[in-house]
Design goal:
Length: 367
């Protein structure tokens, strides 16, 4: 069990507050670097963003000389064991130098002798921040003295990674609102992601059509006795419980995956937006619900080529694959249950399938 001092806890709370109060990514990173620099007893600190190719870009730093950036970007990044382009996978959120390479081996590398040593850097650690499953940024801390970043600092790094993920999520949501200049317009216009608004007391305000569809599915799994109580969007307790403010503490972004069946899951994210961020007259929670496929996808090209299925028939097959009933498919696609049955009849004829189970078996086996 790792024990944190009252100062460590105060530092973590300060980073969370600074990150969640910032109105832009650059301002957030500058404020975080300044505080992390002191909290981690670093002699230099840097906060990179990453692009889709995992290349580190647009750094914000403290106590690093400008002359080192050009040679790093042009050559030395390929030798840095912390650089994401050199990592096949990110198994840990926070990593110290000793976890990547023995110090004695590192001291024999060209990277250390020609690039790190001239900067008087002896110990390093990195924190990898993800957003929506993609690497969003890398926070690097360096020391000129030979005291390693121990388990306590790695643990603090893990906590800060979660705080920064929350901040990036909030800023992304703010950018979407700024683009439309209207939160409700953004919600109505999004047909692929469910969006729910709750006030600061978790009272239901609004939801789009996709959110109502997903909540209906989740209620049948997690609260079956409530699912038919009303046609109004009911938010399952398992979601609303994540939207809870603690007095004196900043709200931390919450994320979980809820599974309805083997092939039907949803990624649920809870954000808290204050009046200034949202441009509204009140503080509220925004809950987003996105499809999270946890089984093999339906191969649309295969279905079209082998069985000559139409786009609508392929769509019906994907719903069957997830375990939807005819009525649920009809409600989701805004068609009648009779139309769904007609589509199924055509699908069975084209694929020579005897029933739903046989259909999915043939499709997944490619026969």
């Amino acid at each position: 069990m790792i024990s944190l001092s009252s100062k460590n806890i105060a530092d973590l709370n300060a980073v969370s507050r600074l990150a969640n109060e910032s109105k832009s990514s650059d301002k957030m990173r500058r404020r975080v670097v300044n505080h992390v620099h002191r909290a981690f007893k670093s002699t230099s600190t840097i906060f990179w963003l990453t692009n889709n190719e995992k290349m580190m870009i647009d750094p914000v730093w403290m106590d690093i000389q400008n002359q080192f950036f050009l040679p790093y970007k042009s050559y030395y990044f390929k030798q840095n064991p912390f650089d994401p382009v050199n990592l096949s996978s990110l198994k840990k959120t926070s990593v110290s130098m000793e976890q990547l390479i023995p110090v004695s081996d590192f001291h024999r590398t060209e990277y250390y002798n020609d690039f790190i040593k001239p900067q008087n850097i002896h110990r390093q650690m990195a924190v990898y921040i993800k957003q929506n499953g993609r690497l969003k940024g890398v926070l690097g801390m360096h020391r000129s003295f030979k005291k390693s970043f121990d388990k306590k600092f790695l643990f603090m790094g893990d906590i800060i990674a979660g705080q920064l993920t929350a901040a990036f999520e909030r800023l992304s949501l703010k950018e979407e609102i700024d683009k439309t200049k209207d939160l409700f317009k953004m919600m109505h216009g999004n047909k692929s992601i469910g969006i729910i608004l709750l006030d600061a007391t978790r009272k239901y305000i609004f939801s789009n059509i996709r959110a109502e569809q997903v909540c209906s599915r989740l209620l049948k799994k997690f609260a079956p006795f409530e699912s038919s109580a009303s046609s109004k969007c009911l938010v399952p307790d398992i979601i609303s419980d994540d939207c809870r403010l603690n007095p004196g503490m900043p709200f931390l972004f919450k994320e979980r995956v809820l599974s309805v069946s083997l092939c039907e899951s949803y990624r649920v994210k809870c954000h808290f937006l204050d009046k200034e961020t949202s441009g509204s007259t009140m503080d509220f929670f925004v809950v987003t619900l996105e499809d999270e496929c946890n089984c093999l996808d339906i191969n649309a090209v295969f279905l079209e080529d082998k069985y000559n299925l139409t786009k609508r028939e392929i769509e019906i097959v994907s719903y069957i694959h997830k375990g939807y009933t005819n009525l649920e498919i009809a409600n989701d696609l805004f068609i009648s249950e009779g139309t769904v049955k007609n589509h199924l009849k055509n699908i069975f004829a084209k694929t020579s399938a005897r029933n739903r189970t046989h259909l999915i078996h043939k499709i997944m086996m490619g026969i």
